[in-house]
Amino acid sequence: MAKRIGEATIELSGKAGISQSVGIAGSKELAGPLGQYFDIAFKDDKLGQETWEKAESTLQTTAVKTLLKKAELMEGDIDVIFAGDLLNQCISSTFGLRELGIPLYGQYGACSTMAQTIAVASVFVESGAANRAAAVTSSHFCSAERQFRLPIEYGGQRTPTAQWTVTGAGAALIETDSQIKVKHLTTGRIVDLSVKDATNMGAAMAPAAADTIFRYLRDTGTTAFDYDLILTGDLGKIGSELLCQLLQRQGIEIGFNHQDCGCLIYDIEGQDVHAGGSGCGCCGSVFCSYIMQRLQRRELNHILFIATGALMSPTSSQQGESIPGIAHLLHITAE
Amino acid sequence: MAKRIGEATIELSGKAGISQSVGIAGSKELAGPLGQYFDIAFKDDKLGQETWEKAESTLQTTAVKTLLKKAELMEGDIDVIFAGDLLNQCISSTFGLRELGIPLYGQYGACSTMAQTIAVASVFVESGAANRAAAVTSSHFCSAERQFRLPIEYGGQRTPTAQWTVTGAGAALIETDSQIKVKHLTTGRIVDLSVKDATNMGAAMAPAAADTIFRYLRDTGTTAFDYDLILTGDLGKIGSELLCQLLQRQGIEIGFNHQDCGCLIYDIEGQDVHAGGSGCGCCGSVFCSYIMQRLQRRELNHILFIATGALMSPTSSQQGESIPGIAHLLHITAE
Predict the structure, then answer these.
(1) Contact across the interface for B1 and A128, Cβ inside 8 Å
(2) Which of A144, A248, B29, B212 has the smallest number of CB atoms closer than 10 Å to its CB?
């Protein structure tokens, strides 16, 4: 049974764990510092498809098929998939997972989706509602650019605060009897400090990350010193600095063991990605490859993984709305 | 603890139930056969807001605030909300629930969202991960028309197979010690029989409903005679007929106790809604008002509630894709 501790944190019994995972990437990510860790990297960013959206769907198909292969499972062995992405009506997930015939609950947490899907899948396994569940997400630079900003053919200039949407996907298998345990969850709540600049997502999401980390540490009575790594999803360079500042104001120091997937995945200066990586596929691919591999090798034993999302749409921004942020936290241990 | 039975069905222990619910509607729904059952109906479909999207957000805000009032609870008494809608990036949920400060996992199941949110919330309560959870969804005729089809100002003609998106919302409170129990869940899988007509959603979704009902009845060894009502979400007139035909081919008769929220909510001939109602708010508002009231009065004791969703987007349709359907089932009892 799960247990609620403090105001906002869920303590799982240790039943649910991540037994296998897959990180998929595109060409720019392959050329970055983590290139060697991805299970599969596509040099053709269209993945042989006609459109960017179909290419992104193929990232999810590939992620789940590779996950099944690594775990030596068939589609019918997975009880339920939790999947989501950034595209309108989550079509990367729908069309990417359509052929698999696995029961599906679509999730929408914007770039927080990797932590959200693992969290919900873990609760399903904890309760006995699923024996095996998969958590999946993706993003694609070109499908995201044309949906949220401008078609890439337009060649629009990017601001220094802009982040580069990762072409990539992550898939994780959640089941019992794994040594990589999901021990605690803190569900994010919407935090909106009225940031309206859609080219500065790090600033919009940092307050939500600070809120969730603060509530988790308070609920568990722990400090950053109790963890080997505090890993955020895609705050990038600017959002990461803001997160550390916001927590410092509350007397919490995390800078010494904080890292951000958006800063890890690219050589920020050398690859011209401005403030770093972003998108569901950013922490999706980084967590499910590089970080999971470090947990499996016991280079990391206790980590906090906090994926952040910006819950706006082009329509809400055009209507003058600010950008609400959210951040979901997982405490993961390697035993 | 939950238990898996058969291939696809989850049996809950009886811990999780729906203790309170709220159905909200617009003016056309108020004028329909169920007008008297809604908790609140707005005569002004803009709800005093500047845009249709903000009006839809206000439907969700109103639904949750009314739910809290009916249950005599404060925002802090709800551990987590599961919410979703049809708009790009689920902005009705985000902006509608932003001010409440309640932890949120966004859900995307298109028009299946009401059953999905109750299902996931029930598993959270079953596991102990939440003591109280809310399940929320909405849709709005005008925000849906302009996003999925044409702006209403264009005055486009509607085909006879088209359905009318309901302006409405539903909110349900899931907790322990309720007499309206969620006993079984069957998670839908994507079913796509290559229907491409975006003005005939009933035909696109009926195969998914048939698949989920078939799997549930097989897993539980029950027949339609074991239930007082088999209630589908928003198949409308055409989809309902197709559902009955598809199940008949498999030797299953449900016509004698099947009803569809899309057929119940409007006077189909008199209100000129062609094939009936649709949208997340269709079964959201009907289930959370009229149906829940009948369960509370014990006019209904055992029902199956199957909400169906069409998981396409305008982009996927423009790219020549067919319309994948999904249907999630709940077995609900009044004890």
Answers:
(1) yes
(2) A248
- The whole-angstrom distance between A145's CA and the closest CA on chain B is 14
Where are the extended beta strands (E) located within B208-270? 229-232, 258-260
Cβ–Cβ of A188/B104 closer than 8 Å?
yes
Q: Where are the domains of chain B?
A: 15-175, 180-334
Q: How far apart are CA A81 and CA B37, in angstroms?
A: 36
Q: Is the pLDDT of residue A156 over 90?
A: no
What is the pTM (predicted TM-score) of this model? 0.98
Across the interface, whether the CB atoms of B315 and A87 are under 8 A apart is answered: yes
CB atoms within 10 A of CB A1: 13
* Chain A residues near residue B318 by CB distance under 8 angstroms: none
Architecture of the domain whose range is A15-175: 3-Layer(aba) Sandwich (3.40)
CB contact under 8 Å between A190 and B104, yes or no, is yes
pLDDT category at B156 given cuts 50, 70, 90 is confident
**Which of A3, A91, A312 lies at the smallest CB-CB distance from B89?**
A312
Strand partners, B17: B175, B181
The ipTM (two decimal places) reads 0.98
Q: Do the domains A180-334 and A15-175 match in fold?
A: yes
**Beta carbons of A127 and B1 less than 8 Å apart:** yes
Q: What is the mean pLDDT of residues A209-234?
A: 98
Rg of chain A over CA atoms, in angstroms? 18
> Which CATH number is associated with domain A180-334?
3.40.47.40
